[in-house]
Design brief:
Length: 229
């Protein structure tokens, strides 16, 4: 139960910190943090939580990561559903807290996006569904490769949160203009449910693509990291 509670809290922090920076601070008049700040915020949520709860739950914070770690031989199948459940509930709870905070400002309109992920007319840059699909698959694939490599028993110990957090920052720097960056089905669900409408109808892509990408990343890492016999 402590592991699932840790995943709930960690995913809550990721959504509140990452999506919160996008909703509350990205375009704040005069001193907004912009795309670079939002990218860094997402990376910092993972970095800080990895040190805080990594020794408790492994700090997955992401259904695709849990599935990828299972496919990579690092996580038991018996814990997959409870981990994913804790992550999704944590993300939805954080979305609710963020909604309460954001709605306290005059002119707040949740239908404008609320940091939701989207494609086509709902992509920040107007990118197509295919572009969004490829982006999310490839970004999640490389995220899993970094995670598996950084946590490999042969890697330097104690430093894994740094490359993982920086990788997530880089992923956001690349893909915010395309999909608003998901690579995390829980993160996408946690805000989409409050927007409803298009955000929910497009949510399927932000479950399917990250999971496919995570599985590919696990397969690739197992191939390149296997020791020669």
């Amino acid at each position: 139960m402590k592991q699932y509670s840790a995943e709930f809290l960690g995913t809550f922090w990721l959504v509140l910190g990452g999506c919160g920076s996008a909703v509350l601070a990205a375009a704040f008049p005069g001193v907004g943090i912009g795309l670079h700040g939002v990218s860094l915020a997402f990376g910092l949520t993972v970095l800080t939580m990895a040190y805080a709860i990594g020794h408790i739950s492994g700090c997955h914070l992401n259904p695709a990561v849990s599935i990828g770690l299972w496919a990579g031989g690092r996580f038991p199948a018996s814990k997959l559903l409870p981990y994913i459940g804790a992550q999704v509930v944590g993300a939805i709870a954080a979305g609710g807290v963020l909604y309460i905070i954001a709605s306290g400002a005059p002119g707040f309109d949740v239908s404008k996006g609320f940091a939701s992920n989207g494609y086509g007319a709902h992509s920040p840059g107007g990118y197509s569904m295919l572009a969004a699909l490829v982006t999310e698959v490839v970004m999640t694939m490389f995220f899993l490769i970094v995670i598996l490599g950084a946590t490999d028993k042969r890697a330097p110990s104690g430093f894994a949160p740094l490359p993982i957090g920086l990788a997530l920052t880089l992923i956001h720097l690349i893909s915010i203009p395309i999909t608003n960056t998901s690579v995390n089905p829980a993160r996408s669900t946690g805000v989409a449910l409050y927007v409803g409408d298009w955000a929910v109808s497009q949510l399927w892509l932000f479950w399917v693509a990250p999971i496919v990408g995570a599985l590919l990343g696990a397969v690739i890492y197992r191939f390149i990291a296997s020791e020669e016999k």
